[in-house]
From TrEMBL:
InterPro entries recorded: BatD
Pfam families: BatD (PF13584)
Source organism superkingdom: Bacteria
Protein name: Aerotolerance-related exported protein
Organism: Robiginitalea biformata (strain ATCC BAA-864 / DSM 15991 / KCTC 12146 / HTCC2501)
Signal peptide: 1-21
Presence of keyword Protein transport: no
Annotated transmembrane regions: 451-468
Keyword Membrane: yes
Keywords, in A-Z order: Membrane, Signal, Transmembrane, Transmembrane helix
Length: 591
């Protein structure tokens, strides 16, 4: 027992002595380079090694080199024969930027309260070598195997001719994309744009630079240039997380992959937009471009007076269907015509808009007779043939078989003209042959009570007329008040559906969002439901709307989207309804 105690005491004493010796030993901090002479296409590894833990490490500026990776940190600690060894290393991978002699300056660190510095080292960079022995870094592998491309269908289109832009992320089979996040979405200034949505991302096989690659379609957009000349398409930028193979392998011989984050950009693309030719441009051309067809139809051509019919002016085909005005019908003055109802049936694909747009007129004849609807003309530019095309409708005769007749023949007149019906003299009145007359006592009117009342009545009405006149003048002078009243009525009309659904979260916010979009559609004559909130903000700002009103409008749209996923109380719904009424009122003042 006594011998065992001596052995344990001696072991503890030697261990404590070794530990104290290690802790009290000299501090070392040095720079180690993988090589001092390398080709311009090789890589340099710089290790800053210390034998004790330190803080506040400051690397040199690495003048003449580009940092590919780092700093990566590694720590090593071990006991050998009772002696503790410790090492901490900061590692950088550098790429030379040019040939020449460069000096890697001092790195500094604080160890045990003292500042320690490395000795500067000189490196010579020579011509590129045939077989660079430096293995490519993770970032270099990612750069070589990851590409974001914007594929444009046409670089020299005509104005209002569709151009498709497809954004594809190409990556080789050696790397794997785990996630991506957009950093900067293009705004497409000077273009009418619509994004083509899709349900999910899918990986497809293709080629890039003549090499087999895989790719993912990230975004598809159809653009219609709104001005001629050189127009730029802003780049799309992404932050991509990917798995990159390294030259290391695990215990089972499988390659170890490292995670890298890269920012890629599709680059700025430029279109040379051609103006529509002036030669051969028809009179009344409204800006329609595409392969179109035009017709005017009526629901019936024979009817009775006071019955109604519908006349429809429609344009169908493929083209900029949302970006031009339909021609107006010219109808006889003796036909009562209501404001046309606009409708559209349009689908937007990667090749552009297809479908039809139409305006339907409701017509009510007042007298019997025959009424011709004169032909109207519609013209458009066809970019496929690079010529203007025109089409005229056929003359349609409406026959009213029953009803009163008009003396004057119906003549064509512009919509909204004042109609003055003239009743014919073929009217018969019954005259009673045996009247039953009774004698009546006659009394003079002058001096009677009725005579006095009628005499004084105008004098009594003068003060009332003066008061009413002043009230009317005050209302006419109150321009702002009149605008507010009209705007309030307009807001109530658009929000009536949402008000009825207060308390029903989903239905209320669907109705509120539709009301906001319908208001802008009526005011701006565009389909705002197909625009993003940024595009709507840009449109309202361009129209001179105050920034506060624009912020409130976009915030309401965001609430409508958030309501699908978040609980909203009736109090919040009422607040959003009141705010929507205020916003529409403010927008109406500016628009």
């Amino acid at each position: 027992m006594r011998i065992r105690g001596w052995i344990i005491s001696l072991f503890l004493a030697f261990s404590a002595t070794a530990l104290l010796g290690q802790e009290d030993g000299e501090v070392t901090f040095e720079l180690k380079l993988s090589k001092e002479r390398l080709g311009v296409n090789e890589r340099l590894r710089a290790d800053f090694v210390m034998n004790k833990d330190g803080d506040n490490f400051v690397p040199p500026d690495f003048e003449g080199f580009r940092v590919l990776m780092g700093p990566s940190q590694s720590i090593s600690s071990s006991w050998i024969n009772g002696v503790r060894s410790y090492s901490k290393t900061y590692t950088y991978v550098l790429a030379p930027e040019a040939k020449g002699r460069f000096t890697i300056g001092q790195g500094t660190i604080v160890i045990s309260g003292e500042v320690h510095k490395t000795i500067p080292r000189e490196v010579t960079v020579t011509e590129a070598v045939d077989n660079p022995n430096g293995a490519p870094s993770v970032d270099e592998i990612a750069d070589e195997n990851l590409h974001l491309v914007a594929e444009v269908s046409k670089t020299n289109p005509y104005m209002n001719e569709p151009v498709s832009v497809v954004y594809k992320l190409y990556f080789s089979s050696t790397v794997g994309v785990s996630n991506f996040r957009p950093l900067d979405n293009p705004k497409y200034n000077n273009f009418w744009s619509q994004e083509i949505p899709f349900s999910k991302y899918s990986i497809e096989n293709g080629t890039y630079g003549g090499q087999p690659y895989r790719y993912v379609v990230l975004k598809r957009v159809v653009l219609y240039p709104q001005k001629s000349g050189e127009l730029a398409i802003e780049p799309l930028a992404l932050e991509v997380s990917l798995e990159v193979p390294t030259d290391k392998r695990n215990f089972f011989g499988e390659r170890i992959y490292a995670t890298a984050n890269k920012t890629v950009s599709a680059g700025r693309r430029t279109l040379q937009v051609r103006p529509l030719p002036e030669a051969g441009k028809p009179a009344g051309f409204s800006g329609a471009v595409g392969d179109l067809d035009f017709e005017v139809t009526t629901s019936k051509t024979s009817l009775k007076a006071t019955e109604s019919l519908q006349a429809t002016v429609s344009v169908s085909g493929s083209g900029n269907l949302k970006l031009f005005q339909l021609p107006k019908l010219t109808l006889p003055s003796s036909l009562e015509v209501y404001e046309p109802e606009f409708s559209e049936d349009i689908r937007t694909t990667i090749s552009g808009m297809q479908g039809s747009v139409s305006e339907q007129y409701t017509i009510v004849p007042g007298f019997q007779g025959k009424y011709p609807i004169p032909p109207i003309n519609f013209s458009w530019f066809n970019p496929r043939t690079e010529t203007y095309e025109s089409m005229s409708s056929d003359e349609i005769t409406i026959e009213v078989t029953e009803g009163p007749t008009a003396v004057a023949a119906s003549t064509p007149a512009a919509p909204g003209a004042v109609k003055s019906p003239v009743i014919s003299g073929n009217q018969f009145y019954f005259i009673k042959l045996r009247p039953e007359l009774s004698s009546k006592t006659w009394s003079p009117f002058f001096g009677s009570r009725a005579h006095i009342i009628w005499l004084l009545a105008p004098l009594l009405l003068i003060p009332l007329f003066v008061v009413l006149r002043r009230k009317q003048e005050e209302r006419q002078r109150d321009v702002v008040g009149n605008k507010v009243k009209r705007a309030n009525r307009l807001a109530r009309r658009y929000l009536s559906r949402a008000r009825k659904l207060l308390g029903q979260k989903d239905a209320f916010y669907v109705a509120l969002e539709r009301a906001l979009h319908n208001y802008l559609k009526a005011k701006l004559k565009i389909e705002t439901s197909e625009f993003s909130k940024d595009k709507i903000r840009e449109l309202l700002t361009d129209r001179g709307v105050a920034s506060d009103a624009v912020d409130d409008f976009t915030r309401l749209l965001e609430n409508c989207e958030m309501a699908r996923y978040s609980p909203f109380s009736r109090v919040q719904m009422q607040q959003d309804y009141d705010k929507a009424s205020e916003v529409i009122t403010e927008l109406d003042k500016s628009l």
